[in-house]
Design goal:
Layout lengths: L3 E5 L11 H6 L1 H14 L3 H6 L8 H21 L6 E4 L4 H7 L5 H18 L4 E7 L3 H10 L4 E8 L2 E7 H13 L4 E4 L12 H11 L26 H8 L6 H10 L4 E5 L4 H9 L6 E5 L2 H9 L6
Parallel strand pairs: 1-2, 1-7, 7-8
Antiparallel strand pairs: 3-5, 3-6, 4-5
Length: 311
């Protein structure tokens, strides 16, 4: 029997039209979008399906992504495909939290709506992010530590691809040093701020106030956190981890390696794009894991055709 993980992508994979065919063909999906609208006061379906500028603004992107991911995940579960473990990259971790049974969809939408607002409002002038290609984790960590100013690792995505974040001047200096140290490329990202850096600590602190009154449930399946790269041991750790996640490194490579070590042999990337699939190819050199993507009904049908291999 396969050990299945549901994995959820983060902000940056969004596009107009994501989730629309699920919305139009499954009442379960439509109900999720309705719940997102009720929790946020936003027409989340319109943000996802109609041409607009909001979809790429952090304040709106996050709830739109989460609604799409949860809508697809609920349809999969209705079709009899359920995970034994779950994880998500950055924003995608909220898809994992809901899938793990810890947080209700209603509460998740409320939190993520505020998370998007807080992160957008906390973005300082002069922040930046850059993808470092072809350099080792140890070299990047060392150069970030030695660079004057605030710069650190935002994302451990996969071997050969790490993202740094912080003050723009410090990011630029670190990029220069990394190129001198042998990095193949250092590409500035077109983002609205230095996410997952110490510059976002105030947003995390404010998010903790949103999380504080929520009642969390015991996990029905295990899930992994970006903060440690490992499984969450106890429910009472989760609020603090979600607070820290805003400003700490996303240890996605470590999340994936931990799941593989624990016997996961099927991963289903739920939501727009194939970002996590690309990372897996570089992490899973021995090809122990079969990856499926589900972002439209065609993908769903292909997955259902392979249902026997998932049992």
């Amino acid at each position: 029997m396969s050990k299945i993980a549901f994995v959820f992508p983060g902000q940056g994979a969004q596009y107009v039209g994501m989730g629309k065919d699920f919305y139009e063909n499954f009442q379960t999906a439509k109900d999720i979008f309705a719940e997102a609208e009720q929790a946020s006061g936003l027409d989340v379906a319109a943000i996802c399906f109609e041409e607009n500028e909001k979809i790429n603004q952090t304040e709106y992107t996050q709830i739109a992504m989460l609604a799409t991911e949860l809508a697809i995940a609920k349809v999969l579960e209705d079709e009899g495909i359920s995970p034994q473990v779950t994880a998500g990259l950055s924003l995608g971790e909220y898809g994992a939290v809901v899938t793990a049974g810890v947080m209700s969809t209603k509460d998740a939408f409320k939190v993520v709506r505020q998370r998007g607002i807080l992160m957008q409002n906390a973005v300082p002038v002069g922040g930046a992010m850059a993808a470092v290609l072809g350099s080792s984790q140890e070299t990047i960590e060392k150069i970030c530590d030695e660079t004057e100013g605030i710069v650190s690792i935002a994302n451990y995505n996969c071997p050969g691809q790490i993202v740094i974040t912080g003050e723009e001047a410090a990011v630029d200096k670190a990029c220069e040093a990394l190129k001198e140290a042998g990095a193949k490329r250092c590409v500035k990202l077109n983002v609205s701020g230095p996410f997952h850096s110490a510059l976002l600590e105030t947003a995390g602190q404010e998010l903790s106030k949103v999380l504080a009154p929520l009642e969390l449930e015991e996990m029905t399946i295990p899930y992994l956190t970006n903060v440690t790269g490992d499984y969450v041991a106890a429910v009472d750790e989760i609020k603090e981890l979600l607070e820290k996640q805003v400003s700490s490194s996303v240890r996605w490579q470590q999340n994936v390696e931990r799941m593989i070590a624990d016997g996961v042999d099927v991963m289903i990337e739920i939501g727009p794009g194939k970002t996590l699939s690309g990372f897996l190819r570089k992490i899973d050199k021995e090809k122990k894991v079969t990856m499926y993507n589900v972002e439209n009904i065609e993908d769903l049908n292909k997955l259902l055709e392979n249902r026997r291999s998932l049992c």
